[in-house]
User: What shape does this take?
Amino acid sequence: AELLDPAVKGTLNVLNSCANSSSIKRVVLTSSIAAVTYNGKPRTPDVVDESWFTDLDYCRGLKVCVCVSLLPPLMPY
Assistant: This one.
């Protein structure tokens, strides 16, 4: 609860702010930074969206075993 409560409250604060903004069209919440980190793209994007999903072939090339073993069931393709 010590870590979970602030995370939930923080997420709800962001979502409530987005809901009150007329310029926000959608919100993408990832379960882990690993979902969008390993793709070979620069680390300073203006927008992170579904095109940023981790590339499994890139992970295999880097031998990032955790991503290769955990992400395939979660990937949309």
User: Anything to note?
Assistant: The chain has one domain: 4-74. DSSP finds four helices and no strands in the chain. Residues 4-19 form the longest helix (16 residues).
